[in-house]
Design goal:
The chain has 106 residues and is mainly α. Helix 3 crosses helix 4. The protein is elongated and about 60 Å long.
């Protein structure tokens, strides 16, 4: 009963988007430990008073990693995926500009 529910959930992950459910599910489930580690690094950096931008961008990447696969091969992608990807790009650009400005002014 439990195994059937897990099987149905896993193989149903990609069906709504027209992608290979094994690939989508593997990326989806495989990203969980990396997302958790990235969140831990965000907390660590905040406690140390260092920039959490890098780990936060990594956490966002792992959060949407399966949906990035959808951007390439899928359809009916949820709107929130576009919002998170755009926020990641803006956050990365903002971080890069800050670093360049800090190094050029020094």
């Amino acid at each position: 009963m439990l195994w059937t529910s897990i099987h149905d959930w896993f193989f149903g992950l990609g069906a709504a988007y027209g992608v290979d459910p094994v690939v989508f599910g593997a990326i989806y489930v495989g990203a969980i430990p990396f997302f958790t580690l990235s969140l831990g690094l965000v907390v660590r950096n905040l406690r140390r008073g260092t920039s959490p931008v890098g780990p936060a961008l990594a956490a966002a990447f792992f959060f949407v990693s399966a949906y990035l696969y959808l951007l390439v091969v899928g359809h009916d992608i949820p709107a929130w995926v576009y919002v998170v990807v755009a926020a990641m790009l803006v956050g990365g650009a903002w971080s890069a500009v800050r670093k360049v400005r800090a190094r050029t002014s020094a």
